[in-house]
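Sat 14:20. Reprocessing the chain from the morning session after the first attempt stalled halfway. Input below, unchanged.
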Amino acid sequence: MNVCVLVEIIKETNKNWRFIFEDPLADELKYLPGQLVQLVAKPGEEGAFIRNYSVASSPDGSNRFELIITNLEGGQMSDHLFKEADIMTEFLYRGPMGVFTLTNELETRPFVFVSTGSGISPFRSMMKWIDEKNIKFDSIKLYFGTRTEEDLLYREELEAIQKRHPNFQYFPTLSREVKKGIPHGYVHEHYLKYIDNLDVKPLVYFCGWNRMIEEGREHLAKRGFVMQKDIKVEIFG
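Finished this time. Tokens:
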């Protein structure tokens, strides 16, 4: 385990805040876009607890990493971060680690990213890295499902990346609110419509709530998609 300190809090929305951590003993954190960290709150205390979070920032040569976390009432970590922790609060962490990362098919196969809530984190990391490093890719569609427009995390940033990269498209969808110019409904109906009109199978990444991912896997299994070969998942609840 390594030590990190909370150095910045950005209130992205009422329910979703960005927490920036720094490892004071590291010159640079080396990791792959899409990986996660295991965060330990109240280290050394009897009530210490651990949670896994996808890193929302991209590798930039610094000793910092960013997490975006949803405030879940009664959740130990979210209660600690939203109500107790302050700048310079110490945590332990392990990672970044994990295999929910981009594959070498990026230039030759369409990719579809599907997320709900703070499950946008690894995709923000991937797209930020692709944009900053000008990485070549065939096609990427990012479908992001939330309840309301206010919960569209990193919206301006992703829309800006879309303008710079015509083969990247960002599709927000709202399930509980109707807003002009934003598709309404659950995220599945939107990406499935796109997939059903493709001549080739894209590589589909899911990150978000367990129920969304299970439903997505069922939809794709009926279409002949196979785990690992055609589907990658990261579950956070």
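The mean pLDDT is 90.
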